[in-house]
Known about the structure:
Oligomer: single chain
Number of domains: 3
CATH class of the largest domain: Alpha Beta
Shape: elongated
Number of strands: 18
Radius of gyration: 25 Å
Helix content: 25-40%
Structural class: alpha+beta
Amino acid sequence: MNIHEYQAKQIFAKYGVPTPKGIVANTPDQAAKNAAELGGDIWVVKAQIHAGGRGLGGGVKLAKSIDEVRELASQILGMTLVTHQTGPEGKLVQKVYIEEGADIKDELYLGVVLDRAKEMPVIMASTEGGMEIEKVAEETPEKIIKVAVDPAIGFQGFHGRELVFGLGITDPNEQKKFIDFASKLYRVYMENDAELIEINPLIKTGSGDFIALDGKMGFDDSALGRHPEIEDMRDISEEDPDEREASQYGLSYVALDGEIGCMVNGAGLAMGTMDTINYMGGTPANFLDVGGKANAETVAKGFEIILKNPNVKAIFVNIFGGIVRCDRIANGILEATKMVDVHVPVIVRLDGTNALEAAEILKNANIANVIPATDLADGAAKAVAAAKGE
């Protein structure tokens, strides 16, 4: 689950992570009122969407008067903001964050993310603040400092010293402030079951203080039960409606750009299925894991969600029956043909528990566009051929 910048900064504030003062607004008049409440003579109007790169997309503007705050808010609210993280379809801006101006002497990057290879959180820092970290990693990877922190010992002084020396911070007072900042950010990450924290830019002011000018946070969905106050921050309008609908039925669904719909049980098998489709010359239209508790209703719902995508030209059902019995999936396929207009070829590979019974169910149903497959490679090849109209 992701949250907005203003929400991330609310969490930062609880841990003493310095941020500029700001107030969220839903209308231009409210934005102007917020600016007056904040005071000062310069403000930043920031679009609030679940994506980075807002400044490059025109979603972050500087205002030097209350009237300009109102004008910029009216321009940004309601716009479809396209960034490198939203995709070409962009995201509708429904909130803006009005923030006080800041004295920016230098811009850095600071983030915390889980390194699955190291099996521990990694703090990443760079002198290239304000730039896309992906671009920095690609073009100048030596400018990214990575410090792994073993959760058994937590953030220690030597972690902080590695960061400040790597960033070239030589002033002892600034070193102390940065290490304190990084230590607090690590606590935010660990104590809230975050998957990602990103501050880009982290600014250094003229007085040598470090302030989170931006804030991005993502959380482990499986841990939200421990954090109801964070779950309350969920903005469902920012989430893909099909992915949200799928989750209500216990389905893990992610939309992709291809032509072959995939329905698989188990994330590993789903990834392998998509890789095999690509290897065979096709492109997957989605990731869909029906999980271990699938029944006829959830399988039918899976078909319904897949077929909402107009680009889908074939569906590959690849089930290895363990907890999920193959006959249950077969009945789900039959149920789907009654509930949904399954107008594309459906290639079905069922193996494992009750696979023979499932094959008999599908054979007796005599559905014209259901094509049996013997194994993964055979199924992927037939799905690619069907999508190409062969």
